[in-house]
Amino acid sequence: MKIEEYGLEKLVGPLLEWFAKHARTLPWREDATPYRVWVSEIMLQQTRVEAVKPYFEQFIKTLPDVKALAGCGEEQLLKLWEGLGYYNRVRNLQTAARQVMEEYGGEIPMEYEELLKLKGIGHYTAGAIASIAYGNLAPAVDGNVLRVISRAAGDERDIMKQSVRANMEREILKIIPKDCPGNFNQALMELGATVCLPNGGPKCQECPWQTMCTAKKENTFFRIPVKSKQKKRRIEKRTVFLIRDGEKVILRRRMEQGLLAGMYEFPNESGHMNAKEAVSYVKSLNLAPLRIERLKDAKHIFSHVEWRMQGYLIRVEAVEKDDGLIFAEASEFRENYPMPSAFAAYAKYLDIYLGKKREPV
Fold first, then answer.
1. Which of 103, 120, 204, 206 is deepest in the core (most CB within 10 A)?
2. Is 317 one of the catalytic residues?
């Protein structure tokens, strides 16, 4: 059944009553300004709510408004984001902040179509800002919403198709209450995040729609929503080097384009090297190895790539700081060197903890 045949309007009342009793207390809901809603929605893309909370609070404390975000230095910006991953999100966020300063006089636009003109803001984020912060009638259709509506209506169309998403947005727009569009959109998201869970695991007994849900009646929730299969991740083998000169460790900065652009990293190379090859690599950096220790293997998953890493801790003779190498004290990591969580497993060997769960170094 397509959603327009189901009659979505009957879902509105029970959903809002449920949300009034079960809405989670979240830091970005306490003061839903356009800036706070925007930052939270960008952080929440592909990241769990619990993981986002400490990042959001620190980000807002450090960069409390659009002007502060627009003027923030790149390394501080990346450091605030360290551990969240998908770093293009925060780069786009800053680019959009600068657009707001230059083109909108520092005021985040309230119109859905104007929000779409900002870098990194798609239909969902524009709808969230417009409805939650400004009270405008706009749909905010994310994966949670696609799932709950598809299941309620028994709609087995492929939600990965843009035409299906667009249809969902049009139909939801028809039923958004004029007096509380923000609450309605948040209620849909909340239902998907806490009750109508993915992978065949909904908590139907807690759902306000349990008597109206087609997928529950027909026992089809395990196959709805329908999603076309994504391409398999590419596997990359890498060797990571923790090269130490006394209490300092060698870092390098990644290129300004591509994966993890502009972030700092431990030297690493494609392929898995044996100890002899690892020593030869260190010598190629004009360093003199003294001792080598094999570290535990580690894995990190990006959206389309999976790194399977092996590592070495290598002590070298004291050298002059030259050849473009960066010799960093562990105590400098916290403020000066944003490093992606891909290297977290190896950073711990240096008592360096990346992201918001970092411990003192």
1. 120
2. no
